[in-house]
Specification:
With about 270 residues, this protein is of the alpha+beta class. The chain has five helices and eleven strands; from the N terminus they run βββαβαβαβββαβαββ. It has two domains: about 110 residues, Roll (Ubiquitin-like (UB roll)); about 130 residues, Roll (Ubiquitin-like (UB roll)), CATH 3.10.20.310. Strands 1-2-10-11-8-9 form a six-stranded mixed sheet. Strand 1 and strand 2 form a beta hairpin. The protein is elongated and about 60 Å long. It starts with a strand and ends in a 5-residue tail after the last strand.
């Protein structure tokens, strides 16, 4: 919601809980670096794996009820090409993938390695589509318990060339906040933040919890991830209690695109 426009400054509400919105496409590529060993684009033979857990499933396109559209035929042709590719053969019934590793990205407030270590499958072992889905569900529950406010956690499979179905499983946290809106996407520098209502934690402690320095680039999900950092810090002070965090986002358009936060915090009554 736009509150005011004055001297090229926009003030927006930072909602305490993001409103439901259309989640990012399941085909979205991970926004952070892939795990060590995952080939970069053009670096070597690798491709998105086929299978139920892969994120590049075709979307049906039929303009006439009961009749397949041209896009469907193209998708079928692509699938046929994949099935005939000797370097990336599809799984046969009863076969499993060989796991090269997991990756989880999208929040600076999560120990991804520790979370991944809790999964039953490990590098070098076998893994199925059903196990990948179960692992993704476990990741989502763990993120929710750690106050990560996500719209979706996408799963991507990257398969290495060869007949033994070696794959990386890559999860990426997709946030929804003001910077998810088209009109506010792009390059913004962080201009700083203020706090009000906080008594149990100082401004310095909250700034450390957020871990965002003036001059850094503010990316999509920065507001959501800042809340995660503060809520995790408050868990140590008010375990099991709710701290309400809201505020405003101020965007300065000229002479540079600068984003600043004004946080309003409501702490539970002291016992």
């Amino acid at each position: 919601m736009i509150l005011q426009t004055r001297n090229s400054v926009l003030a927006l509400l930072l909602l305490a809980a993001p409103a439901p919105a259309t989640s990012p496409s399941a085909t979205a590529a991970p926004t952070n670096a892939a795990p060590a060993g995952v080939p970069a684009a053009g670096a070597g033979p690798a491709k998105a794996a086929s299978g139920a857990a892969a994120t590049n499933a075709a979307t049906p396109n039929a303009s006439v009820p009961g009749k397949r559209g041209a896009a469907d035929a193209d998708d079928d042709n692509d699938d046929d090409d994949d099935n005939k590719d000797p370097d990336f053969p599809p799984l046969k019934p009863g076969e499993s993938y060989h796991l090269l590793g997991f990756s989880l990205s999208g929040s600076k407030h999560i120990d991804a390695d520790a979370l991944i270590a809790t999964l039953p499958e490990h590098k070098g072992g076998s893994i199925t589509d059903a196990q990948i889905k179960a692992d993704a569900d476990k990741i989502k529950k763990a993120l929710t318990a750690r106050h990560v406010h996500f719209a979706e956690v996408t799963t991507a499979l990257v398969q290495r060339e060869g007949p033994d179905h070696r794959i990386w499983v890559i999860w990426d946290i997709q946030h929804i906040d003001a910077f998810s809106r088209v009109q506010y996407q792009g390059y913004w520098k962080f201009g700083g933040q203020t706090f009000s209502g906080n008594k149990a934690l100082t401004n310095e402690q909250l700034e450390k919890a957020i871990d965002l320095k003036p001059g850094e680039r503010v990316r999509e999900g920065a507001i959501s991830d800042a809340r995660t950092g503060m809520e995790q810090a408050y868990d140590k002070v008010f375990p099991g209690q709710t701290v309400k965090i809201g505020g405003k986002l101020k965007l300065t358009l000229t002479p540079a695109r600068v984003a600043s936060f004004e946080w309003q915090i409501t702490e539970p009554p002291a016992k």
